[in-house]
Amino acid sequence: MKMRKITGICIIILMGTTLISCSKLIKINNQQLEITVNNLMQTHLSSAIKGTKPLMNEFSSSEYLVTAEFTAKDFKLQDSKKVSFHDAKGERTIWTLRGTYDKYPLEKVLQITTYKGFPNTAYFKVKYINKGNRKLSVTGWANNHYSLLPSKADSIPFWSFQGSSHADRRDWIQPIRFGLHHKNYMGMNASDYGGGIPMVDLWRRDAGIAIGQSDSIFRLISLPVRYDQDSSYATVSVQYSYPEPASLKPGDTLSTYETFVDVHTGDCFPPLREFGRYMQTKGIIPPKPEEYAFEPIWCAWGYGRNFTVKEILRTLPKVKELGFKWVGIDDGYQQAIGDWHTNNSQFPGGDSEMKALVDSIHKMGMKAMLWWAPMAASPKSNFIKEYPNSLLIQKNGKPQFISWWDSYYLSPTDSVTRNATQSTVRLFLKEWGFDALKLDGQYMNACAPDYAEGHHLSNPDQSIEQLPEYFKLIYKTARKIDPHAVIEFCPCGTCMNFYLMPYTNQFVASDPESSWQVRTKALVYHAIVPQTAYYGDHAELINDDFASQIGVGGVPGSKFVWPKLHAPGEQGLLLTPARDSLFKKWVSLYNKMELSKGDYLGDLYDIGYDYPEAHCIKKDGNMYYAFYNPHFNGNIQLKGLEASGNYAVRDYFHDKSYGTIKGGNPNLKVSFTNFLVLEVMPIN
User: Fold this and answer.
1) Are 82 and 18 in contact (CB under 8 A)?
2) Global pTM value
3) Which of 106, 230, 567, 631 has the highest local Cβ count within 10 Å?
4) What is the CATH number of domain 291-378+415-448+468-600?
5) What is the fold, at CATH topology level, of the domain defined by 613-682?
């Protein structure tokens, strides 16, 4: 947050400037979105979609400043200006509204921008100017604070997407009921859990509102969602709290980060897609799809950290037979977290034995992936002993702890850390010959502010703001060594940090707690980074539910062990004859259809309100539907078909024909348990 004197705004291509009288309500429209501003600079949101019920029943003091002395919410509108022009982002309109606070000479400048190319959305920036003669101690600010009316016709008043990360590994998409209060802080919510997608969305069956932060840099904001037990509405907002009160001196200006509001129909897919598109104009560009990232993966993690090379080699023929094309070597090969050469226990032959293992995988026609926990080092590691100044240091003077690995964070901006990281990538890909890296651990998603000296930071928050540069270094180094290198990013149960997404070409369901999480994470990734590979993680985590991986456009994976257990108590990992048959069938179907390369049509169904749960993928002119429910018997609707077309319908898992249907009447009577996957082909 910078404080500076107000300067003029330069507009390059001017199409029209209009001064607006402040005696009337100001209306700002962008297709479905309607914003009304009153003379206290309060706002009211509504949807222009016919038949939509009111989203709010009153105006909201949606943008306000919090100081140690007062909270400035209502500002008397003094003037407003509307400017339209065209630039690299397309046709846009900027509304600038100025108002004054009646209890202290504080001026508010609210700028609302709409783009023709980003319908249904408005972008907010607010400036507060101290016109008084004393210093103000600012503790925080809020943008886009709205009170939303629930659906009274449904048992679930709202569904939501909430993009924060927590140690309980909660669902990203979840219902909103009375009593819910989530802060949705984007910083560290536990020692090694933080980061996420800076957006929340609350929707009803008829319409929804998404808000978020759209700066080009990761910011430590909160996106609280609250629905109190006795309340007639739910509230959302974008909030920022200063770690230490900021001093706003007389004549100085304080600016908020850029935030947005999106009014939409359907679930969270449309606003997530729009957010991803808009952020590309800020330079946050998804990676190009990598062909190899769409191939099914077997991982040796089923054998645990104490695996043997013999166990892996013994399993490879079965891995190939089942149709898996990747072999993953997981945690346990290294000397310590931070010391990445091989240990003598698993690899008595040293690094050359690891290279020989990779060669064996390649000789069988498969590719090799290696697990890695970058930016971390064990207290017992030689790296920490040699480079103690590389540690990220918290405000309390202690290193930041990574609970799962019993390790410490390394500073992502420290030159020693960065040089060691590059050397490690070269070791893995160039010397050992691996084709891919599995970056693993929830801690990668974010880090605490760094108070250490010598880490090239002008303020502690830059550690998290510059974290993407660290993963960019890994990605660019790997792809320079191997132009087809796959970089899998597995943030273990967290909602992946949006600002890291350009630096992975394989997203992951990342230790799902349920099949629902696999499917809903697929929806989110397909929305925000379309056409990029989404790996469903190990099927064993969801009771071999390959349908929840493949049906939503995911890449299947497994960590089965064969022909015998590594240790007692791992019965669920053993590839029995029945599982062998099941795995072979699903992986064969995947390799034949490759639905992960199709177009996920996330705006056809509502993940919350449609029954049963439904997903659709379009590929090579065909439509592939997946329905999920424990027990369903009734009619389903195959949305998205051409009304004039005729279609053949087939259950591609059970190879069962459902005959033909007309696109103008796409209803089908079905009965299924757990899942139904359909291939719908046009009949010429």
Assistant:
1) yes
2) 0.95
3) 106
4) 3.20.20.70
5) Immunoglobulin-like (2.60.40)
